Amino acid sequence: MSVLVGKPAPSFSAKAVKGETIIEDFSLDQYIGKKYVVFFFYPKDFTFVCPTELHRFQEELAEFEKRNVAVVGCSTDSEFSHWAWLQTPRSKGGIQGVTYPLVADINKTISEDYDVLAGDFEIDEEGKSVVVGELVAYRGLFLIDLNGIVRHQVVNDMPLGRSIRECLRVVDALQHFEENGEVCPMDWEKGSDAMTPDHQGVSSYLSK
Questions:
Q1: Strand 102-104 relative to strand 69-75: parallel, antiparallel, unpaired?
Q2: Which family would the database say this protein is a member of (predicted)?
């Protein structure tokens, strides 16, 4: 698994769906210098764990927006599958009401560039390339800063849903560090004591 932290987020241009609109050339590059980005991958449309995550991001969207964060989802489904799922009521397993963009990585190149693509290729006895496992994305999540640099990543296996609360906590920690130069210890939350490195590189707690 590649570690992208500290590196530019892989660039792409792909189709995406936002509400009822299909966007032909969607790119995260549009946010550079303007917004932070939480870019998350999920395995499949019309599944079980995935809609709980997508709805939860929507429920907390105002909190992300308060922090100047754009939320963008992605899976290896087509834009037509995204569109159909977005038009399906929540009571029927759909994600109607989700307003942030969903990227269609149907060629699986984006998932591969972010190194969250599950499944492998092997060569069979006839010399043909065959897929081992299903080529869908793990539950990867990447926090990208205003300069387009990945500052945080986490990747869960398919059955394991993520924590929106933890995602917001990490956004707060990054922004606190950028604004104050103070580093954030384990389980730090907004409003808690942070730490500052002294000239010898030894950190000490600061009281607010």
A1: parallel
A2: Belongs to the peroxiredoxin family. AhpC/Prx1 subfamily.
In the set 50, 74, 167, 184, the catalytic residue is: 50
* Tokens coding 177: 């560090």
Q: pLDDT (tens digit, 9 = 90+) per residue, 96-137?
A: 999 999 999 999 999 999 999 997 656 656 666 555 667 899
In this prediction the pTM is: 0.88
Domains of the chain: 14-162 (3.40.30.10), 164-208 (no CATH)
The 10s digit of each residue's pLDDT in 57-109 is 999 999 999 999 999 999 999 999 999 999 999 999 999 999 999 999 999 99
Question: Is the Cβ–Cβ distance between 4 and 115 less than 8 Å?
Answer: yes
Tell me, what DSSP letter sits at residue 92? G
DSSP codes of every residue in 6-73: TSBPPP--EEEEETTEEEEEE-GGGGTTT-EEEEEE-S-SS-SHHHHHHHHHHHTHHHHHHTTEEEEE
